[in-house]
Amino acid sequence: MKQLFLCLCGWMICSISKAQDPVSFVNPLVGTASSHDLSNGNTYPAIAVPWGMNFWTPQTGKMGDGWAYTYDATKIVGFKQTHQPSPWMNDYGQFSIMPVTKRAVFKEADRASWFSHKAEIATPYYYSVYLADYDVKTEITPTERAAAFRFTYPATDSAFVIVDAMDMGSYIKIIPGEREIIGYTTKNKGGVPGNFRNYFVLLFDRPFTVSYLWKDGTLTKDLLEGSAGHTGAVIGFAAGKGTQVNVKVASSFISPAQADLNLQREIAGDNFEAVKQHAKDAWSKYLGRVMVEGGSDKQTATFYSCLYRCLLFPQKHYEIDAAGKVVHYSPYNGKVMPGKLYAGTGFWDTFRSLYPLLNLLYPDINSEMQEGLVNAYKEGGWLPEWSSPGYRNIMVGNNSASVVADAYLKGIRGYDIDTLYQALLKDANNEGPMTAVGRKGVQFYNKLGYVPFDAGINESAARTLEYAYDDFTIYQLAKALKRPQEEIDLYAKRCQNYRHLFDPSSKLMRGKNTDGSFQAPFNPVKWGGAFTEGNSWHYSWSVFHDIQGLINLMGGERVFTVMLDSVFNMPPVFDESYYKKVIHEIREMQVMNMGQYAHGNQPIQHMIYLYNYAGEPWKTQYWVREVMDKLYLPTPDGYCGDEDNGQTSSWYIFSALGFYPVCPATDQYVLGAPLFKRATLYLQNGKKFTINAVADDTTNRYVQSVKLNNRFSHKNWISYNELQKGGRMKVKMSAVPDKSRGTDKSAYPYSFSK
What we know:
Elements: E1 2-5, E2 12-17, E3 55-59, E4 75-76, E5 78-82, E6 95-101, H1 108-111, E7 113-114, E8 120-122, E9 127-131, E10 136-142, E11 146-152, E12 156-166, E13 170-175, E14 180-185, E15 198-204, E16 210-215, E17 218-221, E18 225-228, E19 231-239, E20 244-252, H2 256-266, H3 272-287, E21 290-293, H4 297-310, E22 315-316, E23 319-320, E24 326-329, E25 336-338, E26 342-343, E27 345-346, H5 347-350, H6 354-361, H7 363-380, E28 386-387, H8 400-409, H9 417-428, H10 442-448, H11 460-480, H12 485-494, E29 502-503, E30 508-509, H13 536-539, H14 547-554, H15 557-569, H16 584-591, H17 617-631, H18 647-657, E31 659-660, E32 668-671, E33 678-682, E34 688-694, E35 702-708, E36 711-712, E37 717-719, H19 720-724, E38 727-734
Parallel strand pairs: 34-38
Antiparallel strand pairs: 1-2, 3-5, 4-7, 5-6, 6-12, 8-9, 9-10, 10-11, 11-20, 12-19, 13-14, 13-18, 14-15, 15-20, 16-17, 16-19, 21-33, 22-26, 23-24, 24-25, 27-28, 29-30, 31-32, 32-37, 33-34, 35-36, 35-38
Helix pairs in contact: 4-18, 6-7, 7-9, 8-9, 8-11, 9-11, 11-12
């Protein structure tokens, strides 16, 4: 079959016939045409293996700039080891490498080189670019904790490699006799203890002819070792035309010896091509858990580019010591601890569909992540809600409860669930050391049933709605663990706290004061205030576990669907006064031409699927396809807002398959409309589940009938257990909606009130 092949600019369709290979469809440059003011993804090309401890990326931004690589940049200043989950969170433990010729320079402005996307190859496992100012080709290929670099130089007696350990405190040592550079960087933007270091080692395959050391603004020849605020090294070689200098690089958060061990264990015995093949094989293995057929090249490239983003974060934060034991440097207590740990995710984003995707397709990986949460709790005393690598004080909610509960309820085992459950109880009933850990305002929430608008706690309505859903997930887990009935009943009661914020006059969620009166004045299109990066029209649907209860509050199914329709029918008006400026999330809603529907941010992403709960599933089918077709592309501007560590991508993966996890911690996925003629899930238990869409093309977006293993299904959902058994779902598609299918209440998905 004809396949898409990534070359040069990263997005070209070449007439190459080859066996289906999902890796060849991935474009790591998707989402990189972004800025502080408008996000088309806010991504960078992560050259990595799935969930690797270290990523690498070309660096076009200045040291410390969260926008490390942007598509419209014209110069590269280095190739950076990165652990950055988001430009808003910024990076930690970063250092960079840069080849130059002509002069031994160090500063970013001096070493920067023009480049072109026409001379750039970006794949998940291999990156190459031509540095025009130096006539040097740079190539990178990764392992979990190491990477191989290959620099191809012109004929020159002045070929150099720069190693920049960056500022905030760093150390460099050049060891010419060993052809080695070692050092550490402390560069970070928070979430680390005072003793945080990323130790690195570089091993070259050619002897050095000259060396320089950089210390706080001064480059000194033949100085071999130094520590300062900002250190780095420049080493030189003699080169004939086409001379290749190979560098093997590894790092460790634990020690210099562990960095060297990581290098020896992962990369020392392989040449560049062998490392490249191993990295490609890793991506083929994990991307191959889903094989899609029958879509256009653009759709297939979008699908696998999204799946690639789902397999990056959180990163492994653990290493294997000399005795073969799994250990990690703890960003929670600053000690080297036993066991696994992952870092780099925000549950406010990823509880919605990224973790449910891991539970479906990669349960072995999420088992490790759950073990990591056990260790995080033991070492820090709280579960992280945003880790990068340790606690970060950003966003709201207590959504670790959803991540923990959904994994266990989906049958994932191999970790201490009892400790995690105790962590959920602690976090649900206490304020943490920062507002984004535990539950800010919990004393009000547990007494009044909501966080008051007038209690000096920002985004109170968003907190209340998410706490109520999180209580539902604790209730579900408590039942599974056979906890005392009194405890189960408590969280069953608290999960109904969303009702306190429902305003009958507007039929929307609204901030409420301590005395029980509603916040006034009330503008439902005002962003912020009672809500988090959204308005009431976005957050009023955040009753994931009890949509029937929300329908009842609104006045029945007809009113409910009219309210859903209104999201798309309204103009994209907004009130930005809380932020005192138009934040990028507002602008992204405004420019997408879908009314108040703000898919570029997470709170509303499940809303399209709610028509299934009210007898109009064909509207879900229509809008799901509209969003997939219009808001996702396999191009540098391919997202409609922040990608956010796999969340916006996992929405597309689920939606393209034809179902979505509206309510994690239940076993149901709500049906939409499959995008591909065939999609095959290769499940970890050895079973295979195939989704066939009959007569599926751009005009056939409506579901006429569903057969599950040759038996007609009238339901608007499919269960996790049905998928895990393997089999086949056959979906007959049509160009016109079938307004009789899925309209009976017996077809509706789970709601607590039912």
